[in-house]
């Protein structure tokens, strides 16, 4: 995240079931304050933590819900400045950090332009969309320019979860068993992915690639039943040229973020194949060192561990060990300087 985004979040009117990170001195508790500090730190402290935890490189993406809670003009401006902020961090640590572009789906044409700028000029490796925007799903025709740009640039789109659309979220947010990352996020992001499959977008854009976290938000476990019920509901006249599982196998990659557990990971590898599974930590919401240890101890071959930890991500996101970065410096963001508590002892990134 950026200091400016935390400040902007603090001005968003509260909504039931929606938790936005704000500056540490305005956070409701110390846990949220520490998360804000860790997310904004894209400098030396983050690198030291990576060294201690056994991480060579992090691929960074703007934390949910990103810029998707703001009006169109604000969202477009803040996405651009967040990408410039990230670019400067990567320039300072080109062998340790890489990133995905923040975009504002509120303005699909501007989002497509920002994705192109971020890939071609800033050296970023794809886009992140934090699920719904204004309670609208991504299969709507208005969002096609974003996915068309991703295919043209040959970069993936990472669909990251957030709280479900408002009508659905009312059924989730009052239960700690259902709310947030426990269940609601997977339902929201998984619904987005399945709606994209059902929309026919992958026949229109046959090279488009999507990345889902949390072992595919549960979809790999459900694919046989999804196919079965899809065929039953079609009454022998399928509306798509391929089965949902076939689209998933050809157009989706999944990461292990928050789901580094052997029985579940083994099942997903059996379903989608090791080449489509990427290690992720979900830092700082999960413990980075513990996640590395869990995967290191799994009964995988060394070749499969190398794919999972490194080479799959390099291939999918087109990351080299030392990324070639754009020579031209990004513009400076026009936001006020943010003063952290005890700022003398805490790095805020480059």
Topology record:
Elements: H1 3-9, H2 30-40, H3 44-53, E1 58-60, H4 72-92, E2 97-99, E3 101-102, H5 108-120, E4 127-129, H6 144-153, E5 157-159, H7 166-169, H8 184-199, H9 201-204, E6 210-212, H10 214-217, H11 219-234, H12 244-251, E7 252-255, H13 262-272, E8 277-278, H14 288-296, H15 302-317
Parallel strand pairs: 1-2, 3-4, 4-5, 5-6, 6-7, 7-8
Report what the structure shows.
It is a single chain. The protein has helices at 3-9, 30-40, 44-53, 72-92, 108-120, 144-153, 166-169, 184-199, 201-204, 214-217, 219-234, 244-251, 262-272, 288-296, 302-317, and strands at residues 58-60, 97-99, 101-102, 127-129, 157-159, 210-212, 252-255, 277-278. 46% of the residues lie in helices and 7% in strands. The chain has a six-stranded parallel sheet. Strands 1-2 form a two-stranded parallel ribbon. The chain is of the alpha/beta class and 350 residues long. Strand 3, helix 5 (108-120) and strand 4 form a beta-alpha-beta unit. It is globular, with a radius of gyration of 20 Å.
């Amino acid at each position: 995240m950026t200091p400016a985004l935390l400040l902007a979040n603090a001005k968003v009117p509260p909504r039931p079931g929606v938790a936005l990170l704000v500056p540490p001195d305005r956070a409701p508790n110390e846990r949220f304050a520490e998360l804000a500090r860790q997310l904004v730190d894209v400098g030396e402290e983050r690198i030291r933590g990576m060294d201690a935890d056994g991480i060579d490189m992090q691929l960074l993406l703007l934390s949910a819900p990103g810029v998707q809670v703001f009006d169109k003009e604000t969202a477009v401006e803040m996405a651009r400045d967040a990408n410039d902020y990230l670019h400067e961090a990567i320039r300072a640590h080109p062998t340790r950090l890489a990133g995905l572009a923040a975009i504002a789906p509120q303005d699909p044409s501007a989002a497509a332009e920002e994705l192109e700028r971020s890939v071609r000029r800033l050296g970023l490796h794809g886009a992140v969309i934090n699920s719904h925007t204004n309670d609208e799903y991504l299969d709507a025709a208005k969002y096609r320019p974003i996915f068309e740009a991703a295919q043209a640039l040959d970069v993936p789109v990472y669909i990251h979860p957030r709280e479900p659309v408002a009508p659905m979220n009312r059924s989730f947010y009052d239960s700690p068993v259902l709310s947030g990352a426990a269940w609601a996020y997977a339902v929201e992001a998984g619904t987005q992915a399945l709606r994209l499959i059902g929309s026919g977008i992958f026949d229109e854009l046959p090279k488009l690639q999507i990345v889902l976290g949390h072992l595919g938000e549960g979809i790999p476990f459900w694919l046989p039943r999804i196919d079965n019920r899809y065929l039953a509901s079609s009454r022998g006249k399928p509306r798509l040229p391929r089965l949902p599982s076939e689209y998933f196998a050809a157009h989706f990659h999944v990461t292990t973020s928050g789901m580094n557990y052997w029985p579940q990971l083994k099942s997903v590898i059996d379903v989608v194949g090791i080449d489509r599974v990427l290690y992720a930590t979900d830092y700082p919401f999960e413990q980075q060192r513990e996640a590395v240890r869990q995967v290191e101890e799994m009964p995988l071959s060394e070749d499969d561990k190398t794919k999972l930890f490194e080479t799959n991500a390099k291939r999918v996101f087109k990351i080299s060990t030392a990324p070639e970065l754009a020579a031209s410096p990004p513009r400076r963001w026009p936001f006020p300087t943010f003063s952290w508590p005890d700022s003398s002892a805490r790095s805020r990134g480059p």
